Amino acid sequence: MRSIAIMNQKGGVGKTTTAVNLSAALAALGLRVGLIDLDPQAHATLHFGIEPKPDEPSIYHVLTGKTRLGEVLRPVAENLWVMVSSLDLAAAELELVNVIGREVILRDKLRDDPPPVDYLLIDCPPSLGILTLNALAAVGEVFIPLQPHYFALHGLSRLLETIDLVAARINDKLRLGGVMLCMYDAGTRLAAEVGQDVDAFFRNARGQATPWADAQVFQTRIRRNVRLAEAPSFGQSIFQYAPDSHGAEDYQRLAAEVVARGKG
Ligand SMILES: Nc1ncnc2c1ncn2[C@@H]1O[C@H](COP(=O)(O)OP(=O)(O)OP(=O)(O)O)[C@@H](O)[C@H]1O
Ligand SMILES: [Mg+2]
Predict the structure, then answer these.
(1) What is d(CA 39, CA 45) in angstroms, rounded to the nearest whole number?
(2) Tens digit of pLDDT per residue, the chain (264 long)?
(3) Which of 33, 48, 71, 136 has the fewest CB neighbours in a 10 Å radius?
């Protein structure tokens, strides 16, 4: 099983849009995909048309109680399951403060009850708190969505520092697998320049002893496309909502790249 956390502590960069539509694209290739919604906002859960209910088992109960992952697994399409979030998850951060080993709860739950999938994706919240640490402790790879503006690289150093610390202390197999540029305004100078800067940053890191030494910037740019912004309110992936849109085309190409890179 390949496991990937989609993370960036900056809000609104395209994490959930990527987590949902990349999952759907991988499932359409015939791969079995599970997406864990680890964000109290429950946007990925909602994007798949599931209304989070506080009395139904969710990732909150998995992290804070005896609930098994299998109990929160919901089928949403062929080959595709989501492990649902709920608003309660916001309280988990505080509730877990005094729990020993709180960073590795999700890792252990995955070990006890591995979902029957080829790809496991995790949609992280926009913070570097205990929820995101649980994701980093549990996966083999991190993908970082970036929005191409001049401060795109700015928040990256803290993010990479966090990945480095988790790799050193909790999960030595953790690697930054890739960076994708989202909401890309093709044809603008700004997008092209930031794209080049990001490419150069990771090229220069090659060969260094860091978890991002092999990180690639995906060639597929996810263009800005209003269909991608509309799809969540219909509870549908882009492939159900607008299969002929640029958004569908881009996430399909991204999925092909992700699979190709996974084969080394
Ligand atoms: N390529 C795109 N084109 C147009 N709109 C997009 C695109 N990608 C994402 N959006 C929209 O931008 C907003 C933020 O995207 P998204 O929710 O995926 O970001 P996020 O990083 O998950 O945010 P948060 O940090 O709050 O979890 C959403 O309204 C989404 O529909
Ligand atoms: Mg999100």
Answers:
(1) 9
(2) 999 999 999 999 999 999 999 999 999 999 999 999 999 999 999 999 999 888 899 999 999 999 999 999 999 999 999 999 999 999 998 999 999 999 999 999 999 999 999 999 999 999 999 999 999 999 999 999 999 887 778 888 889 999 999 999 999 999 999 999 999 998 889 899 989 999 999 999 888 899 999 999 999 999 999 999 999 999 999 999 999 999 999 999 999 999 998 875
(3) 71
Q: Is the pTM of this model over 0.90?
A: yes
The answer to whether residues 3 and 137 touch, using CB atoms and an 8 Å cutoff, is no
Ligand 2 centre distance from Cα of residue 125 (Å): 6
Centroid of ligand 1 to alpha carbon of 122 (angstroms)? 16
**Is residue 146 a contact partner of residue 198, using CB atoms and an 8 Å limit?**
yes
Question: Is 44 within 8 Å of 82 (Cβ atoms)?
Answer: yes
Report yes or no: 206 and 213 within 8 Å, Cβ to Cβ.
yes
Contact present, 163 and 177 (Cβ < 8 Å): no
Single-letter residue type at 86: S
Minimum CA distance residue for ligand 1 atom 20: 12
Which ligand lies nearest the alpha carbon of 126? 1
* Residues forming a β-bridge with 239: none
Main-chain phi, psi angles of 151, to 5 degrees:
-95, 10
